[in-house]
Specification:
heterodimer; A: 178 residues; B: 513 residues; 2 domains; elongated
Chain lengths: 178, 513
């Protein structure tokens, strides 16, 4: 049987949130939500796992500070020791304090860029990638909820469509995925 | 929701205070102002004292030493003086200038020559000479040859540390309350009574500070060197041209005008905020809220100036030769953070007792975020101040850190590491900022860390290398902590824990994340 995707469109975020709550309380699995702005609390309603972006940010930060230490050690201690302000040279340990601002900045640079790029790749929204949202209006003032029939095989199709009807959508669209 | 301080809380807080007082008294009588002795050779010992002892006390010490070194003939030479005129003969000057030697000030360095009294000649009995020098060194090391400082430096310095620390906690809470009103924040309304409770304990710190300042003004201690009139007298041997240049600002009358201005401003605003919030409970409406809003903004203007000048006056003027332009911010960030930790602790305590049903995880999380963020603010300012001065290495500036690195090494860097790395590592995750266990353990750790931060700001300028961490420090901290927490809980008992007519109350009750 071919999988069917149902897109229910709403013109108000509260309507979508209440609809999602209604569906979830009736054991319907809502697979995704498309919205022009962040909807606070929607992820816990439809059961999206918490983001692991913070963990990647931490790892990028650690990578950044390591790279900075290695780089500075090579540039300022090993390859071309420089005497700036009469500070002790030829030793990373004693010069460490003066390099802290650079460590800090490089850590922030790596964490921020790494996090942003990871985010774009994970969401498949890198510049030039084809849009994945079902309707261009979800970037304007409409909200769309995505329900897959393959994830809701435990509910009869007629019951499911009645439940969705109860949420008071604006438009509905069904697509078959082969 | 009404809170009444429980008998148990009363017993614990006041018990801590009484135990602290006992420790303080024991520690006070245990303290010895050590005179340092260094053996030069068999016949001579160098005695060094970095405190403040007047001529009379110095003579008393000499008599004590002479009576204890019975059977020996002692000669005291001022070796500080000898260093100045190294070309002159020590022996010639020693007696003829003995009067003048005493004018060298409260700090002394004596070279003591030891000879056997029974034999006029030093060479007669080498064995006993050796033991004589050793005996004096032993006596100095064990504290037999020592005296209480005339001004009880250690006691006064500790009173200043604790007075400022606990005054700062209350001031941090007052500042945050004003900030909350001025920014018309909604989330923290359910916590505002706790802020009010903490800031009501401000008079404790103020009283301690006032005692320190009054005694200093009348010359009871020398924490503030610029209070000494000799230092501003060009004819005196104590004349200090740098402090003389700052006398337009650092003089006793102006200092007291400023102290009066700070304390009355803070106290008036504090009382006013408390009065109005109680009035709002009864009357309701938004009129009081908007007057609070304007008055809070006005307070922030005063606070912006006073928090800086206050830290210059109370703390930076101890090292009157030194200055740092971001010192005020640095002190302020510590104050605010300590205040936030106290808010967190009191909130968790009351919440555990079931008095705060309207405070949810998100409120705790937000105070936790403040603890996390302010730790970074503090570390940033600490490091900015330290790194620039260390890097530029200008003698008149770097002396401040030289003292701290040489004599307070572990404390100085340890404070930074504890106050920076612990919050960073343990409060980075969302879950730890919501877990009472993490918040209490790490919160306590950085709370003590920030007490040591104040310690590091004050002690190197007052006790130099003769600091100690003993019962006196522990006792005084416990005493202040006990009285402070008692007075916070006591003032929390006097008003309901919820501002029931605050316009943002509903928003705050439903605050999420």
């Amino acid at each position: 049987m071919a999988d069917k995707v149902i897109f229910a469109m709403y013109d108000d975020d509260d309507k979508l949130m209440d609809g999602a709550k209604h569906l979830v309380s009736n054991d319907v699995k809502v697979s995704d939500v498309y919205s022009p702005m962040p909807l606070h609390g929607i992820d816990s309603i439809i059961g999206v796992e918490p983001t692991r972006l913070a963990i990647t940010a931490f790892m990028y930060g650690i990578t950044g500070v390591m790279l900075a230490i290695i780089g500075i050690r090579y540039m300022m201690i090993v390859d071309w020791p420089m005497n700036i302000g009469g500070k002790p040279n030829f030793s990373l340990k004693e010069n460490m304090l003066s390099f802290v601002p650079i460590f800090f900045e490089f850590t922030v640079l790596c964490a921020a860029h790494g996090m942003a790029i990871t985010y774009l790749i994970r969401n498949k929204t890198l510049p030039g990638m084809p849009p994945r949202n079902p309707d261009p209006r979800t970037t304007d003032d409409k909200f769309v909820m995505e329900i897959k029939t393959s994830e809701n095989t435990h509910i009869k199709e007629s019951v499911l469509s009645k439940l969705i009807k109860d949420t008071g959508f604006l438009e509905i669209e069904e697509k078959s995925i082969l | 929701m009404d809170y009444k301080i429980s008998e148990r809380a009363k017993k614990v807080t006041l018990g801590t205070a009484v135990l602290g007082l006992i420790f303080l008294i024991i520690g006070f009588f245990q303290q010895k102002d050590f005179v340092y002795a260094k053996k030069v050779d068999d016949h001579s010992v160098e005695l060094l004292y970095n405190g403040h002892a007047d001529v009379e006390t110095q003579n008393q010490l000499k008599e004590t030493i002479i009576s204890k070194m019975h059977g020996y003939h002692l000669e005291f030479h001022d070796s500080m003086h000898a260093v100045d005129h190294s070309s002159d003969s020590n022996h010639e000057e020693a007696h003829s200038h003995s009067e003048e030697d005493n004018h060298h000030g409260p700090t002394f360095k004596w070279l003591v020559h030891i000879g056997h009294a029974a034999h006029g000649d030093d060479h007669a009995n080498t064995g006993s000479h050796e033991s004589g020098a050793d005996m004096l060194v032993d006596m100095a090391n064990s504290g037999d040859v020592s005296f209480f400082d005339q001004g009880f430096r250690r006691f006064w310095s500790n009173l200043l540390v604790n007075g400022f620390f606990f005054f700062g906690i209350a001031l941090g809470a007052l500042f945050y309350l004003a900030l909350h009103y001025a920014t018309e924040s909604g989330w923290g309304v359910v916590l505002l009574r706790i802020f009010e409770g903490i800031m009501s304990a401000m008079p404790i710190g103020m009283a301690a500070l006032l005692i320190v300042f009054i005694v200093g003004t009348f010359g009871g201690h020398h924490i503030y060197a610029w209070m000494d009139s000799h230092i501003l007298d060009p004819n005196s041997s104590h004349f200090d041209p740098i402090i003389y240049g700052k006398k337009a600002y650092l003089n006793i009358p102006f200092f007291w005008i400023r102290v009066a201005a700070y304390f009355t401003t803070f106290l008036l605003f504090l009382r006013w905020f408390k009065k109005k919030s109680k009035e709002e409970d009864e009357i309701g409406g938004t009129k009081i809220h908007f007057t609070m809003y304007r008055r809070a903004a006005l307070f922030l203007v005063f606070f912006a100036v006073f928090s800086s000048t206050m830290s210059w006056d109370f703390i930076m003027s101890i090292d009157a030769h030194w200055f740092s332009t971001l010192f005020g911010w640095y002190v302020f960030s510590g104050i605010w953070l300590s205040g936030m930790i106290m808010v967190m602790m009191i909130t968790l305590y009351l919440r555990k007792g079931g008095y705060l049903p309207f405070v949810n995880e998100s409120h705790i999380h937000d105070v936790g975020k403040f603890m996390f963020a302010l730790s970074f603010l503090w570390s940033y300012l600490w490091f900015s101040q330290f790194m620039l001065i260390w890097y530029s290495n200008i003698p008149e500036e770097v002396i401040y850190f030289t003292e701290r690195i040489n004599n307070y090494n572990i404390l100085f860097f340890g404070t930074f590491i504890v106050n920076f790395f612990f919050p960073m590592v343990f409060f980075m995750s969302r879950d730890t900022k919501r877990s009472a266990g993490f918040l209490i353990v790490i919160g306590m750790l950085i709370f003590i860390g920030h007490w040591f931060d104040v310690f590091n700001m004050i002690m190197p300028g007052t006790l130099f290398d003769q600091w100690e961490l003993g019962l006196l420090e522990l006792g005084m901290f416990m005493m202040f902590l006990g009285i402070f927490v008692y007075s916070v809980l006591n003032s929390l008992s006097k008003a309901p824990l919820l501002l029931k007519n605050h316009p943002f109350l509903e928003e705050s009750k439903h605050h999420e994340y």
